[in-house]
Model the fold of this input.
Amino acid sequence: MTNPKITSKIFLCVFIVLITFSVPIMAQRPLATFKSTVKASGVLLDSVKITVIDNTAVIAEGITKKDGKFKFSSFYNKTVTVEFEKPGYLKQIIRISTYIPPRIIADDMSMVYVVEMLPLPANNADLHFDKPTEEIFLDTTQGKFVFNSEYKAKIKEEFDALKKSLSGGVTTN
Done:
């Protein structure tokens, strides 16, 4: 005859072991592949340093080749920052949120996007604008990643105001 106390303890131990090993595996399942193409004035741009940061930890980095391409994968429920840097161009920063409701999660959640690098004016080569220039998030109504157009419009206004103040009130686009 089996002892109910021993049986329940064994069951509890097995349950704890299963939960302990399955939760980290599920939590670290790659979410998506983000594929970027870097251009300047419509031309593919090579030698762009790209850094992907999760909080303060660098999780991926690389340099674009002649095709201007770079890709990385992220995990669910993260906000990562992707920085694009090349001398003579304004540093582009894109914030990507991978927070996804469980009902939306699919095996292939990916996004292809183009980053347009902005050449720095010769007289403002030290111009810094360290705010994210773009935001990407999951649009749950469409079930895909999209750019936040409202955020982009707000940032464009701020950047244009900065350029205007640095040029003494005269702007050139």
User: Anything to note?
Assistant: The two ends are 85 Å apart (CA to CA). Residues 31-166 form a domain with the Immunoglobulin-like fold (CATH 2.60.40.10). Residues 31 and 107 are 8 Å apart (CA to CA). The longest helix spans residues 4-27.
